[in-house]
Write a structure and sequence with these properties.
The chain has four helices and four strands. The protein is α+β, with helices and mostly antiparallel strands. Strands 1-2 form a two-stranded antiparallel ribbon.
């Protein structure tokens, strides 16, 4: 199945190059497994951050909780902001709400 093929793939790291604001994105079937060598390598490249904001779709709340808990084990302050599912969340008012939530999380 496609799921089995994805799980068998090696993790992929995509580097977003923004000078001093560069960061990696880890794509992996088990990306949230802290024993995953790709996670450990990615984590070592983003140190020494102290605060993370997790933006997540309401349909994946349990995954965002897992990620938030993992980040907290690394002594990060974590704020999670839920984005409503569906097309209605792609609106100027939702964008303003998200920007305000990000500002409040500083």
């Amino acid at each position: 199945t496609l799921t089995n093929q994805f799980e068998a793939m090696s993790p992929i790291t995509v580097q977003v190059n923004l000078s001093e604001r560069s960061y990696p994105i880890l794509l992996s079937a088990n990306a949230l497994n802290v024993d995953n060598p790709a996670w450990q390598q990615t984590w070592s490249t983003i140190q020494p951050i102290q605060h993370a904001v997790v933006l997540y779709d309401a349909n994946v709340a349990s995954t965002s909780n897992s990620l938030s808990n993992i980040l907290r084990t690394h002594k990060l302050r974590v704020d999670a902001i839920e984005i409503p599912s569906g097309e209605s969340s792609k609106s100027p008012s939702e964008s303003i709400r998200l920007w305000n939530a990000l500002l409040e999380s500083k």
